[in-house]
Amino acid sequence: MKIDRVVLTGATGFIGSAVLRELCRLREERGDAFAIRVVGRRPPAGMSGVGPLADAGHAGADEWADADLADPRSLAGVCDGADVLLHLAALVAADEESCVAVNVRGTEALMAEAVRAGVGRWVHLSTAAVYGLGPFGGIAVDEVVPAPVSPASRTRLAGEAHALAAGASVLRPGLVLGAGDRWAVPALAELLCAVPALWDGGRARTSVTAVEDLARLIAYTGLTGALPGGRIWHAGHPEPVTLAAFVAALAREGIVAAPERTLPLADCREELRSSGTRSSSRQFSLFAEDFWFDSREVWRVAGCPPGPGPLDRPAGSAQWYRDLFKGRAAR
Hints:
Radius of gyration: 20 Å
Shape: globular
Strand content: 15-25%
Order of helices and strands: EHEEEHEEHEEHEEEHEEHEHHEHH
Number of helices: 10
Strand order of the largest sheet: 3-2-1-4-5-7-12
């Protein structure tokens, strides 16, 4: 299938901006001439509107369609002339109705628009958080019934149904690391400040992916159609990481302080309750108990290398995390 145009939502976000960079890299590497149209309420840096970008330092997109997933009428025509849709935009918020508007109704409207426009290939980004509270140890897709506990996760699960009905490949990553991550490592760092110990000896295993590797999987499968559509895939690195290895990798880069003690989980939970932290016991469980998913199949079927592993990459984003924490401390 010849690719003339790729439509990308979420291009200004953490994962979406990495996918935009990867699309540009693959386009140059493969010598392809496809156009990249980004859809959203604001363009990537360097874009002021639809058409050629203003300078050579732009993010690499060719077109910007000004649209809002919360307003289905604004999506009319955004997929015209497109062969591939990469739907990465989502709202993560505490307000259920706002999440419904974007993650459910917005996804439904976008998929309907893609079908109307004759798009031939879809990739839809979801999250392993749809499974809810663990522990989970290496489960296959839907080996347990999803039981999301937050408005964002509930609505992203509901949005998956519209993507699947349109024939999309739905990806569920676990934690995603790298420059731009404002949730995974910051949450772990805050929990380590509240309970400065290696929880349960650091035995818990977690599905983690470097944003560069996830972006490569999304862009590659969108361009090649290597994944059969209408299916859900786990999209973590094939090898889960232990909490001990995770913390050690971050400590080597000066992102967190290495704990000097270990504590049983029950003691950790008690210390967490008395710490006054804003972090929840649910967030603590995500790191302190097994929360990993069998992701081997997606890389094998896609024929896409998973990369060396997320803990081999912290040096590349260490300064970004250090600057983030420094800025928070200054406030």
